[in-house]
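Before the break, one more example. Copy the sequence into your notebook; we will annotate it together after we see the structure.
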Amino acid sequence: MDLVPAAGVIIINEQDQILLVQRGHAPQQGRWTIPGGKLEPGETPQEAAIREGFEETGLHLRIIREALHVQLPTADGRKFDVHDFVATVIGGTLRHGDDALDARWFSHDELDSVELTKGLLDYLREAGIGHGFEDPRNSEHHHQ
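Here is what the structure looks like once it is written out:
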């Protein structure tokens, strides 16, 4: 099985909100999801998560911990080998990147009222995010 290395980032702010981007392209165009994408040659998953987060949101991030490592099917029969990280904002100005329609903060309660990418809410809960998000600054288990 051909694996495609990828990374994503779950960005949580001090108001206990999660930052999501609205997909500008297929698959699942128009749905909200976490920033992420494929690793570039020589890039670690943490570096890719920070880069993708900046490209898609305009924000500079600090990784707190790895949240989840999963394999997800690609459209062409391969699998994405995805490392997702929890991060906090350390600078920048919120804006959406070229491949996104929008980027904005959501409270936990708002997630039920927007169209998320398939399985995202369950995925966030599996990653330990949900029922009121965590404050990443208080995490005991973190990786830099």
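The first helix runs from residue 45 to 57. The helical segments are 45-57, 120-126. Try to locate both features in your own notes.
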